[in-house]
Amino acid sequence: MTVANDTIVALATAPGESAVAVIRLSGPSALALAARRFRGRRSPEESPGHRILFGRFVGGDGAAIDSVLLAVFRAPRSYTGEDVVEISSHGGAAVPRAILEALVAGGARPARPGEFTERAFRNGKLDLAQAEAVAALVRARSERAARAAEATLGGALTRRVAALDAEMVSLSAEVEARIDFPNDVGEPIDGAALAARCAAIEARVAAWITAIPSARRRDDGVRVALVGRPNVGKSSLLNALVGYDRAIVSASPGTTRDTVESSIWLDGVELRLIDTAGWRDAGDAVERLGVERTERAIEACDLTVLVLDRSGTEEEEDGGWLGGRSLAGRPLVVAWNKADLAPVAAGGGHGDGGRGDGDPGGDAGDRGGGGDRRFARPLAEVETIAIRPGGAEPLLAALRSAMPRVLGEHAGEELPTTSARQEALLVEARDALRRAETGLRADHSYDLVAVDLADARRALGEVVGRGVGPDVTAAVFARFCVGK
After folding, report:
1. pTM for this entry
2. CA distances (Å), 270 to each of 148, 150, 296, 380, 474, in order?
3. Pseudo-torsion of CA 76, 79, 80, 85, nearest 10°?
4. Residue 424 above 90 pLDDT?
5. Of all helices (H) and strands (E), which one includes residue 60?
6. Over 80: is that where the pLDDT of 360 sits?
7. Main-chain phi, psi angles of 177, to 5 degrees
8. φ, ψ for residue 225 (rounded to 5)?
9. CA 112 vs CA 85, 313, 343, 469, 471: distances in Å
10. What is residue 147's predicted lDDT score, i.e. its pLDDT?
11. H or E segment at 239?
12. 376 exposed, middle or buried (CB, 10 Å; 0-12, 13-18, 19+)?
């Protein structure tokens, strides 16, 4: 049974071979438990907070397990707000495990995922938005993502919420005063003026929501799906882009039966490349599953790279299967692969005048031959030779030039990390503010307007953890790693 004020322990560093491992204890018995197993000049129980002690950690039989550094943090000046001890030992598997087992045998309980940060939240060291930022910081895959998470951990998101809430408090007070004390308020309510104030608050929340997808792609990476018929060179292009043989390449069509993912970095942005199964009428159940996963990859991606065969063997058919695919509303780059095998027309040029000559910055729709009308208007059309050194460079340049369009106009903003839970609450707040604005302009019942404003405040409060129930906090911290 989990007890709220018991003492918990966990490995705070990643398991496996490493120079150092850190074991973290937190709770009322943390100092006493550490003192029973620590042998040094000073006992942890006698040490002031924010001190590091050197000594040996011994097992239940008194035999030394390892030489350790033991850091003491006394409540409330610790990460969790409780007494905390962090033991730094040699890494690997055997030593940290032996220390953990000795502490559990002494009375500590293995911590649940995120339980240290959960205690920090419950003890007022962090609000819920800051706690979620801890997990975002651990998962950050880029420097910009880490900066955004650090900004939220430092209170940037909390301050945004507080500023919006302060404006809503003032607005709500004026509305409720006219409901509760109509005879004491001299001037009649100016619905239009209050509606304008409500609209201004709503516009700030709406702008925040609009910027979130760009920030999320910046932080989590841009999903790029390579799609096309079998044997056009999708897997070869993936290998050329990542610089090693990530995907199996074969002359036999249909080699790729599942999606294969790998990442590259362009100007600080992660591109999560997804090689998909070639599209065709599947001949067996396994291939049909691969085609279904291709469809899902197209739906989930931020950018589609349509790979076509310049050799001419499939050109007239390649557009047919896209007729039913929804590419019109998403960014598209067309890569004409096997450019070295392009058929030569009688006049000495290539057979298709709409190929774009590998220029990633031009407008493909206006190129020679009137552009290719079978597909959604591409951001770029390029020619590639995936099997040659440097043959994927035109595609790489096209991807780089497409990033501003894919990331969106808000990509450069230093927006604090915003989780999916927080985004849903911001949407709730925006919708409630819109209802309140409508009510004020239409001279509806001010009792209903007051309820809408209260709903908006409640939703914003839950962003930082105000008024949330235990089921919400449990769901948030369950996504953390053990030891954090």
Report:
1. 0.76
2. 15, 19, 21, 20, 31
3. -90
4. yes
5. none
6. no
7. -60, -35
8. -100, 125
9. 17, 58, 63, 19, 15
10. 85
11. helix 234-242
12. middle
